[in-house]
Q: What sequence folds into this?
């Protein structure tokens, strides 16, 4: 897909414990001229988030991670960077409960596996959304993700 012109100045942090997912997401998003940083654990993600000199417009994180889950990571990221936007992804979309909750709040979630086009579309939508409409709008926005991560952990 051709560059959208506005993506060249955007930096995206991708957090997933699966190296193959990181490589795939990086390859897809670099096609749209995003600067993509990848880390395979939440400690490394928090270190990058804490580096104020590094602009990060969007964090894409897996919902289920071995140390912190995606919701907890997003909440910590927001304490340091209140304007960061968050896009969650997860392969745990088989249960009926998760499917229903995803349908209710699909604007900041990408189910795995995903197509390149779907990921690119969700990234563009999340970056373009007003802050109050993204997954980082406030505590109520995390209720959905809290219920998923509580169910899985």
A:
């Amino acid at each position: 897909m051709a560059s959208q012109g506005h993506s060249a100045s955007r930096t995206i942090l991708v957090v997933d414990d699966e190296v193959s997912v990181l490589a795939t997401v990086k390859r897809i998003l670099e096609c749209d001229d995003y600067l993509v940083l990848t880390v395979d654990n939440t400690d490394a993600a928090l270190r990058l988030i804490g580096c104020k000199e590094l602009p990060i417009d969007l964090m894409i994180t897996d919902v289920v991670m071995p140390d912190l889950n995606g919701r907890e990571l997003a909440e910590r990221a927001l304490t340091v960077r209140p304007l960061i936007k968050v896009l969650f992804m997860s392969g745990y979309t088989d249960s009926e409960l998760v499917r229903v909750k995803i349908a209710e709040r699909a604007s900041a979630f990408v189910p795995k596996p995903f197509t390149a086009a779907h990921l690119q579309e969700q990234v563009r939508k999340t970056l373009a959304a007003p802050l109050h409409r993204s997954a980082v709008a406030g505590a109520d926005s995390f209720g959905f993700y809290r219920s998923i991560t509580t169910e899985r952990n």
In short: Residues 1-5, 99-107, 133-141 have pLDDT under 50 and may be disordered. The first strand starts at residue 11 and ends at 15.
